[in-house]
Batch of 3 targets.
Target 1
Amino acid sequence: MSNEKDTRLVYSTDPKLNQKCPKCRELESECVCAPEVDAKSYKFVAVLRIEKAGRNGKTVTVIDQLPKSELFLKDLTTKLKKKCGSGGTYLMDRKEGVIEIQGDKRELVRAALAKEGIKSKG
């Protein structure tokens, strides 16, 4: 006889047992993803700056020192891109999260961050 931990669910009609993790696509009972951290519970100040270097002269607004939470960064990036009407991306640096918005959109980004309750400087 095998232990409970040695068995693996093959098929079930129970919808609760068939729920899969959106990231790794494994069953939730077998998910190995790290739990998401609630970024709004941390106190942080976002740093805004403009960069041109390495982008063929194109200006990019960079938002630095954000919490390193993929869900938070993805959601905030989507909101900022819609507010600014331009493209952008998010990166997870070694210690922090970074959002890049195309163009010099500092004022729009600052207003959008304030609306979200995030303090900013720069």
Target 2
Amino acid sequence: MSLPHSRPQLSRDHSSRFKEHLSVYIPQPDVQAESSRFSPDSSLAGPSHTLSESWPNASTVRSLTPTHSVPVRECIRDSEAHSVPPSIAPSSRKSRIGKLLFDIRTLARDKEPEVVQESRLQPWPPLHIEKRGCCHDCPCHAVPKKKKRRRAILIAILILIILYLLGNVAVLNTRVFAPQSVVLVSNGTAASPELSAEAQQCLTQYTVNAPSNPAGYPCSTCLPTLQAVPTNFSDGNPQDSQQLLNAVQFCGLRAIFETSDNDGQTALKNGDWVQDVKFCSWNGVSCDNAGQVSSLSLTFPGVPASLPNELGALSGLQSLTVVGNSAIPAGTLPSNFTTWTSLNTLYLESTAITSVPDNIFSVAKTLSTLTLVKNSQMGNGLPSSITSSSLQNLIVNDQSLANPLSQLSSSSSLQTSLKLLDLSSTSISGVIPSSISSFSSLVELHLDSNSLTVPLPSSFPAPLQVLSLSNNTGLTGSVLGSFCSLSNLQTCNMQNTGLVAPSGCGICQFSSTSSSTSSPTATTAA
């Protein structure tokens, strides 16, 4: 209902067992109530309610106790008229008891709420937090022993690697920037000289850079610099002296690669040349136990256009074999071959080399085997120093020589040292000198395919085991003894000559045919 005047309204927060709270405002007696909007004659169906007889002034009745004695419409009308209908009266003992219980319950719940004074809180004292150490024994922080040991090992290895790298850097810096100095002994002679700055730099570049870039090593400047290092440097620096020797030999061999044509370089690359600095493993290169190149074999197409002077850097060379294609290599032997003091075997075949130096036997005093085959540009003479040598094996085939037998037989040193003499296809003419019998150590003698004539010497060297005079059509007549009586003779070839042996000649083979055959291959005497 709407009220004409605003009235104070009490609001209380009463708890009830009902889900919805019912508030009813009871006006004062002096306040005129408005009439109901509903018709008094309207019939309302519904349950009737019984109102409690206790009506507290200016209070709110929160709930009604339902009864069936008074209709709802009458209750509403009576409330609006501010009067109690006469029909509302206690009807039974049960209703009275219920009303009593309701009043008791209502009075118990309608107490005024106690006003709670707001308490003033005192300011909190400063918060003191005790500092506690880390909990090292916490299981969550525990590290397994194996993991801890592995971590310690890795740290130790890392420290060692760092120290190693730092040490290498320090050593390299010391070698590169250290000034040259010479230690003098008491007698005033120099001992164990240190490398110059240039030599040290070349050595460092060879050690550090050349293994990864062998073609980029500056041999043109470093080779003469390193060759100028005194020989007594190795006395106090064995490790550096070995690296120095390797650098020098590397440059000597790389010069062969650089002076070869495209086909030659391709062939050499296929043999691992200049792919690294481990030259002892290159095809055709052999080294001794000291790391020196002891043997070098070059075969076409892997040959240079000419033998470079840098080959003189191979001071430990003992055997040199060069097989060309009759056009290359050309020129002469390197001018500084004088370093080949250990050379004992020189083999040149199908080259365009013009000559063998006359003093080769004076330099290479240990040269024991000289083989010259099909070197058409070499001329018709042997080195003049051959007569002073101790050569054991001399093989010259398919190139012209002028009267070599007289030159060789006049040497007293060759008479005792020469074991194999093969001068087949050298255009020799005339008779075999009788001094041939003076070669006291000669085991093999090959004079095939020449222009020899009779008479034959009355005797040949006693140790002779192989004798071949085939394809000498100028040899005619009967053999009356001579070589037929040699007790050590094992091979004797007189085919394609005019010689005959009516009474037999041991194992010697004779033939009356004039057709030419190729000369037998000579073998080196032991």
Target 3
Amino acid sequence: MATNTKKTAQRQGFKTGEYIVYPAHGVGQITAIEEQNVAGHSLELLVIVFEQDKMTLRVPVAKIASVGMRKLGDPTAVKKALETVRGRPRVKRTMWSRRAQEYEAKINSGDLNSISEVVRDLYRSESQPEQSYSERQLYEAALDRMAREIAAVNKCSETEAIKQIEQNLAKSPSRVKAAEAAAADSDDDEDSEVAA
């Protein structure tokens, strides 16, 4: 199996050094375009490195479209995703196993807006009831994917991207009302203690 590496090249609009989104793994960087001979056939492969996962993936150039690989979203897409996060959570009354499958499919779709819907729907503030373990796992996976893409687009750290997402989650109209109600309840409790 012979390998021939081209350091700077471009294939189907993707070039070495640029960040991309691979649906099942999130944000990765194309480090090279290799040519390998497999079973007598020459294949051109994009070498994609996912640093956080310590993983390298080789994708045949011919399969780029079918695997759903795409370029990073632009600042407009990030803004739209953050607006989605500020929206009202949609909680379906179906069985958890079915909802979990839907959330998993949205996370693995690689679509920033779909991932932001999962983050919005599974977010729990301190005043809300505790999440189950599987809910928390899905939420963290979605938050991680969303933060990685926002960090890559805005050229900031993942921590800053998570702060930005959480600030937008707190701006949700239903969460603002809940926070105000909780603050009013604590004020009432303090007033009754003072009166006693």
